[in-house]
Write a structure and sequence with these properties.
By secondary structure, this protein is mostly helical. Helices cover 78% and strands 0% of the residues. It comes from Microbacterium bovistercoris.
């Protein structure tokens, strides 16, 4: 069980890598647009994250802090999804992504990674 949980954490990290990598490629030298790959990374991180939100494969009993953390992470994920969805709809109509929305996606992806990493 512990090994399986470690595999799911690894998949969760892959989702983060795909999301943040796709965003960074656009941010630094790219066209600062949202891409389908960002949605793929977000979906991988989201599905694996929901699987990790259940207390299996761990020896400790999760307290309030654990559930507060995953609730915050879920809200951040929904905001990221909303920003990407809004930006992609604009792109489809030939418009551009507002730069605030574009940078917010990178910052919020990093925030969720930091919450997972540092909040214990
Ligand atoms: C953009 C979305 C997300 C990103 C980039 C992200 C990133 C990360 C990272 C980097 C870790 C640290 C892994 C480690 O070193 O052990 C982590 C852990 C974790 N994440 Fe996420 N995450 C995201 C969304 C979510 C969501 C939506 C949930 C649940 C609803 C979630 C639940 C968890 C859990 C339960 C852990 C393990 C924390 C622990 O064992 O204390 N994540 N996440």
């Amino acid at each position: 069980m512990e090994t399986l949980r470690a595999v799911v954490v690894f998949v969760h990290l892959l989702g983060f890598a795909v999301l943040f990598g796709a965003w960074a490629a656009q941010a630094f030298g790219g066209k600062k647009q949202f891409t389908q790959l960002m949605n793929v990374g977000l979906a991988i991180a989201g599905v694996a994250g929901l699987a990790l939100a259940a207390p299996w494969g761990i020896e400790w009993t999760p307290g309030m802090s654990f559930y507060l953390k995953i609730t915050v992470k879920l809200v951040v994920l929904i905001i990221i999804g909303g920003l990407i969805g809004m930006g992609m709809a604009r792109q489809k109509r030939g418009g551009t992504v507002p730069s605030g929305a574009f940078w917010a996606v990178g910052v919020l992806a990093l925030l969720n990674a930091a919450l997972g990493f540092f909040w214990h």
